[in-house]
Amino acid sequence: MFSLNDDQISELNKFKVLLDEHKMKEWFQKELDASKYFHSIFKKMDFEKRDLPKNELYSLCDKVVAIFGSTQLRIKGPRSTIESNNPKEFNDSLRKLYFSKTPIVKRFDDFLSNKRVGLSTASAFLCIPYHNEYPYFTNFMYEVFEYLNIDNSQHDEALEQAKKEFNINQNTSEPCEDYFKSLVILRDIKNSLNLESYFLVQNLLWNIYEQSRDDEDQVDSSETTSTEIGNSIPFGMESTLRDFLAGSPEVIEKGLSLIQTEYPTVVGPIDLLCKDKNNKYIVIEVKKTKDSDKAVGKILRYMGAIKDEMKSEPRGILIMYEKDTKVDYALKTLNNVKLKFYQVNFSLSDNPNNY
Fold first, then answer.
1. CB-based contacts of 227: which residues, under 8 Å, 6+ apart?
2. CB 274 within 8 A of CB 282
3. What one-character DSSP code corresponds to residue 86?
């Protein structure tokens, strides 16, 4: 039986007070309003018996983006998600998700089978109208679980409980299985903190995630002030290097074209997102600090986010200043991440450049 330990509950309670802040209360009200909007559409259009027209489907997608942000819908746009699917089939799968008496695992898995619908989008559609029963789940929550030190044994306990409780079997897709395993963990968070809604769980975890990122940035900043250029990119230079590479992506690899710098994903911004000559997504990260594990873990998280959002298998390129044996070992079993090394030429002279 899965349960959080006392230390994990204590850590969560430290952040619970943030939910009482005015801006968080306002955000919770917006989430509640979105839930009411969903139900008003269901009632107005008699969705349990009739299909929703495209304009109403677009409206629901817009609410998902407004409330939960970085999902496939935000990256590609609500219209592309709806228009990538047969309207009747999409309506059928959404109607079954909400109103069918078949097991929720089957309904959720069927909805996941729609084009441009991944775990975060599917869970958002389920959470908004039924936020007391089903949580929203997306990639940043993995980092919060790690921050809380939810270990492998606890993850195994949550999975076993999900399998028994929701009748997960060998035909269940991996994303669906992952959702219900996470539901077990998130439900324990909700119950342990006496939260009335999974909206509040989402808001709480987002605050923890933001705090953990701030802590990491402070560590990164202290490390990048080092004058030892061989250990890390000098302070203030990482954006210059990124901008140079953005302006000349073919320096990295012939045929690369830039999509965006600081590309937003559910797990943070990618330094550079590009496409290669074969139209394949390339995630490019510049290693800024001496922490090799963070560098490898970060690019893999970003690649996972792009895979989820774009429904495509990306490649990764990690750009470093010097060889790092830890990184070499970390990438030995990966065929989709490549290492590149940059060089910096800098000197001082008593004479100006035009002499």
1. 234
2. yes
3. -
Residue closest to 33 by CA, chosen among 143, 129, 168, 140: 129
Of the candidates 149, 305, 291, 322, the residue with the CA atom closest to the CA atom of residue 217: 291
Angle at 215 between CA 243 and CA 232, to 5 degrees: 45
* CA-only gyration radius of the chain, Å: 23
Question: pLDDT truncated to tens, each residue of the chain (355 aa)?
Answer: 899 999 999 999 999 999 999 999 999 999 999 999 999 999 999 999 999 999 999 999 999 988 987 555 555 566 778 888 999 999 999 999 999 999 999 999 999 999 888 888 899 999 999 999 999 998 789 889 989 999 989 999 999 999 999 999 989 998 899 999 999 999 999 999 999 999 999 999 999 988 876 555 454 444 443 333 344 444 344 556 777 888 889 999 999 999 988 787 877 788 899 999 999 999 998 875 555 667 788 899 999 999 988 888 999 999 887 777 888 888 888 889 999 887 765 566 676 655 5
Tell me the two tokens of residue 297. 């873990």
Q: In three state form, how does the secondary structure of 235-290 look?
A: CCCHHHHHHHHHHCHHHCCCCCEEEEEEECCCCCCEEEEEECCCCCEEEEEECCCC
**Plot region of 341 (φ>0 → left; ψ -120 to 50 → alpha; else → beta):** beta
- Do residues 103 and 176 lie in contact, with contact meaning Cβ atoms separated by under 8 Å? no
Q: What are phi and psi of 69, to 5 degrees?
A: 70, -115
Domains and CATH numbers, the chain: 6-212 (no CATH), 226-341 (3.40.1350.10)
Are the beta carbons of 314 and 291 closer than 8 angstroms? no
Query: What's the Cα-to-Cα distance from 250 to each of 202, 276, 277, 303, 323, rounded to whole Å?
Result: 40, 9, 10, 20, 22
Helix (H) or strand (E) holding 339: strand 337-341
d(CA 246, CA 39): 45
